Amino acid sequence: MSTATSDAGAGTTAGFVEPTPSALLLLGQGRDLASERGVECPGALPSPSDPDLVERARAARAALGDSLFVLGHHYQRDEVIQFADVTGDSFRLAREAAARPQAEHIVFCGVHFMAESADILTAPDQKVLLPDLAAGCSMADMAAIEQVEEAWEVLADAGVADSTVPVTYMNSSAAIKAFTGRHGGTVCTSSNAQVALRWAFDQVGGAEGQGTVLFMPDQHLGRNTAVLQLGLRPEDCVVFDPRRPGGGLTAQQLRDARMVLWRGHCSVHGRFSARNVSEVRERVPGVTVLVHPECTHEVVTAADMVGSTEYIVRALGAAEPGSSWAIGTELNLVRRLARQHPELDVHYLDSTVCFCSTMNRIDLPHLVWTLESLVQGRTVNRVVVDADDAHWARVALDQMLALPGL
Ligand code: 13P
Ligand code: SF4
Q: Would you write out the chain's pLDDT as a tens digit for each of its 406 residues?
């Protein structure tokens, strides 16, 4: 469990333009402790139409100097990413946060679970701020700690808990990372899932042995990695549905499984279909289809390449000029890559717009409000993980950071 603190008072603040009510903000109102995110944004946000926003952000950054470090996930809007000291995937950003002990304030332009991880990996006197606390992750919210604890009991009743290692995707709450640390498991991201799964199976006799991995909360990343990279069969994987008694599985199914996949998915990557892949191949002869491993197994097997956001960035950086690419991941990143690579022919895999709505919540008004508040001596939207969860989540995160070959 983490809390969010803010020492900003609501209402107007001298020098701020009156906030413009935004339909998006309403979605984030109200506290939802069962969710991995969760409170309203109490600030007097500048108006999105303020023509000085870019200048204000620059000035605030300059005033804060080295005491500030801004991290930006690849899915962030251009208006925000331009102010990031470092951009990257969730693995790189976790490493970068851990490597900045001199920064008193780390402003995380990403989503809540990433800010929690940064808080866990930084020193107690460093403060991690998330410009809009409603920037959660719908996938992370598909696994609640109470459900995970119940699932573990189901595994124990089936007699497999002792030979099961939990692996949680970075996209999960700090409480679930702590559960994973307590039970001898590891965190993984989409750029190290293969190494993490191999390590986990090695704890219980290897990928060819008898042990089991409980993979949370993204069933697709778990299945794609187990089948395509570790050579398990699709039938070695079962899906545990936390809303059904016993996960919707029999004890025998749990005993026979090698991978118990949590029934979670990403609403953005879940939109891509194998039909999108065949359509783009018809439309763009010679196109290379590159997708994120959160896509369904059907999409990943129909694609030519699969990899994390960092992998996608690197692949386009190394691509042959004139080559054609269809990318299956969040739209902010794909549009930016298309602009950064005019020498390439870059297409979006789906024909309809597909932003991550929670990543998009971090916009320039929220960033300016966060930075200017810091300049005025107020820390807003601080994300703090409670000490016990932080300790055990760190065990699981450190295990990830120590995985061989990373
Ligand atoms: P990366 O681990 O590739 O950064 O992805 C995080 C994420 O949320 C993808 O949807
Ligand atoms: Fe979560 Fe999907 Fe958004 Fe990534 S793209 S933050 S997994 S909802």
A: 566 555 433 332 333 222 333 333 333 344 444 554 545 566 688 998 999 999 999 999 999 999 999 999 999 999 999 999 999 988 889 889 989 998 999 999 999 999 999 999 999 999 999 999 999 999 999 999 999 999 999 999 999 999 999 999 999 999 999 999 999 999 999 999 999 999 999 999 876 778 999 999 999 999 999 999 999 999 999 999 999 999 999 999 999 999 999 999 999 999 999 999 999 999 999 999 999 999 999 999 999 999 999 999 999 999 999 999 999 999 999 999 999 999 999 999 997 868 899 999 999 999 999 999 999 999 999 999 999 999 999 999 999 999 987 6
Residue nearest atom 2 of ligand 2, based on CA coordinates: 266
Looking at domain 2-138+360-391, which of 2.70.70.10, 3.10.50.40, 3.40.50.10800, 2.60.120.280 is its CATH number? 3.40.50.10800
Span from the CA of 399 to the centroid of ligand 2 (angstroms): 23
For ligand 2, atom 3, the nearest C-alpha belongs to 356
Domains of the chain: which residue ranges?
2-138+360-391, 141-266, 269-348
H helical segments located in 128-232? 145-157, 174-182, 193-203, 219-224
Say which CATH superfamily domain 269-348 falls into. Answer: NadA-like (3.40.50.10800)
Q: Separation of 382 CA from ligand 1 center, angstroms?
A: 22
Q: 74, 111, 361: which to mutate for ligand 2, most atoms within 8 A of CB?
A: 111
Protein residues whose CB sits closer than 6 Å to any atom of ligand 1: 89-90, 171, 189-190, 266, 294, 308-309
- Residues 195 and 188: their CA atoms lie apart, in Å, by 9
